Fold each of these.
Amino acid sequence: MVSKIKQPFPFEYTRFEKARIIGSRALQIAMGAPVLIKGTGKGPMEIALEEFERNLIPITVKRKSEGFVWLQKSDYF
């Protein structure tokens, strides 16, 4: 039986997860998605990085270990 374990917030993203989240968000911004922070005259990558650092990007990360571990930031807000 596979159990789903939710790790309590805050949790640590791996460097690969961070790169994927920030890169995906930068692409969204470059394609015209609304920006979640105000007063930015920066490029998409800097905006995405700042949004990530402020925990403004709603994201669900799925990890596989002894079963799937679901890490959902939205469950803790």
Amino acid sequence: MYRIKTFNKISPVGLAKFDPELYDVSDAQENEDGILVRSAKLLDYEFPANLRAIARAGVGVNNIPLERCSQAGIAVFNTPGANANAVKELVLCAMLMGSRDVPGAIDWVRQQVASGVDVTTVVEKGKSAFVGPEIYKKTLGVIGLGAIGSLVANVALSMGMDVYGYDPFLSVDAALRLDRHIHVVKDINELYKRADYITIHIHFTDKTKGMIDAKAIGNMKRGVRFINLARGEIVDDDAMLSALDTGKVAAYITDFPNNRIVTAPHVIAMPHLGASTPESEQNCAAMAVEELRDYLENGNIRNSVNLPAVSMERSGVMRLCIIHKNIPAMLANITTLLSKDGVNVENLSNKSKGDYAYTMVDLGTEVGSAVVEDVRNLANVIRVRVIR
């Protein structure tokens, strides 16, 4: 029986994917095998010795101590793409709101009623303050062409926009998702100088912190409308506020409000609504559960942020799953040790990611605990699991 501890409220659609014969799931588990979490902070959480994996029902993992997990041999999963459609739809909403200041117009109508004015007598004159451009035949720049960015680019193209995309780490899968009419540029400044609207969909890291700074904004078209549903810290607030004051940026629409940004003119700030749809929460929960189950039951790794992707069909009679340091000769050391014990290797898969590597070995015969202990005692081996 696997014990799964939940943090936050996890969609029942996802939880229903756990076989009750194999899993005991609750927020009160102790010495859990797995954790399901959304935004709860685990940075100071004391991991039990039995914990093998953490699945984040969402994309951002800044609430999880990744290096501590890696050192302890704990796989960390997220759910890229599960909320992509929800965010894509909010990007479209953001473009429309930023073009015509729809929130400001709605507030103005309410203010007229609150002041005792017959609103029908002033709308024709008042609406002129909220005139804005159509998005049809305008140019959209999409920074980051992953699960969300590619959807945004394709739908914007279908709405009659000219679309430029930039992603220095564009994967083959992501490239295949893009419509051939999208202009993928290698120089981000080419996107800056062409785009009437820019939306950013990249991860927040030390390298992307403050990426949209005064220099970047200076290379953009005057009157650009900038959408940030990725992470607040990617944009330099001082640079953005200055650009809004001068009109260099006509509107800033963000899903990450703070007290400085919210009160500035030409800012539309939302309370992190990107993935706030029932469908998104269900998709994220279901995907997180499936990743957790496949790892616990089969040792397969999909969408891990700290370990390499390794997946292999089951063969043989037992499987060894070995997390180890990514250093030379580790694979040779493992196979040499097994061969000395006369163990027949049916199948093997090994991949690395940064400082860590993962090896799965399917064995043709049952081996005793002594052999497993020999593997566990190899230098630079972090964790060994046996799956039968």
Amino acid sequence: MSQDNMIKMECPECKHTTYFSRKNKKTLKNRLELMKYCRFCRKHTKHKETK
């Protein structure tokens, strides 16, 4: 996987980075937000893309 397409997904409640994903930065300019399961909070939260 190319490093320039990699993004980190962070839980806004516990501030843990739990997911890594990739996106096309040419077509998606805004930050990504997805509902994911956080194993530290033990619930589904809206994970946001970090730098």
Amino acid sequence: MNVAVIPFKPLRVVGLMSGTSMDGIDAAYMETDGDQIVRRGSAVTLPYPPDFRTRLGAFIAAAPDRGASKREAGLEGELTDRHGAAVADLLAVMGLANTALDLVGFHGQTIWHRPASPGTRPGATWQMGDGPRLAGILGVPVAFDFRSADVAAGGQGAPLVPVYHAALAQGDRPMAILNVGGVANLTWIGRTSTELLGFDTGPGNGLIDDWLRERLGLAMDRNGALAAEGRVDRDLIARMIEHPFFARRPPKSLDRFDFALREFAHLGDADGAATLTAFTAACAAESLKHCPERPRKVFVTGGGRHNPTLMAELGRQTGILVASVDELGWNGDALEAEAFAYLAVRCLRGMPLTFPGTTGVTAPTTGGRIAAPGSPTDGGSARFNLG
């Protein structure tokens, strides 16, 4: 007897992402069944007000030495409400009501990320965000806490986006996608869909932003202008690349604060910006040594692709053609938010989010939790600590 197989209905989803650069919230609309991408829609960014960004940054900097507190709960509630506002902004742009959505993918804000080190420490990760609260605000089910199951299974908990990159990828392979946010990560896609590698390469924009903030009170080196004026200390970069992280085989991941500015403190403003920019590029170039096959081109996503000084340095140090993912027809400003829309549906369906080649888990692993509207709030933080 033949049994008809009913395909999974594509869902209308908004994905939300606030990265380690802490500059704001990206929200992106998508229609997907968690396998095929039916439609990629509009996207918006809701910047964090300077006061909120300062308070969030101060909390993150102090978080390793503190536990939960009333201040944390208040900050988490405000963070969650801002994500709700980002969804509202996106729906207003699209002329849609909340009822048009089936699901929301809510990554939350990474407070700290401490991947497992074999034989030395268990893994731990914390993404602040109250999933039940957001579901209540929007009246829509929310997928959240995407990383904990992977960490519990012995994985690095990051990066999560390679499976989405693989779903988008067309054309010549192998293909490399470099995401330059606060921390940079690389996705390598081989000649078949099963050949997938993902790992953090090192600092992205985070140290550069910290340098501009500490030295000049600026949020970023816009267009790489200060770095373009400086002289790169190549000897310092060569010493920094000797850090054991870069020799370690992937999968591997980093916390936003695993590297600090102290090694660069003797440099002047412009020379420091130039050297930090070149260091980000050197980390990416070093990472390509771990790819099973060298790609012909590196496609860059995230805020780093807007920095022409960094893009030129990436090309110089990798010796490979470097281009923005926008050249592929992808939206480099919304790619991670789109990824969490895609991952939300995979979470709902119990499909794998992470793989041995992307986080080091022993087998493809699903993850995430679903909060339905009206479910009781539990403080909601996607916090997991095996220690």
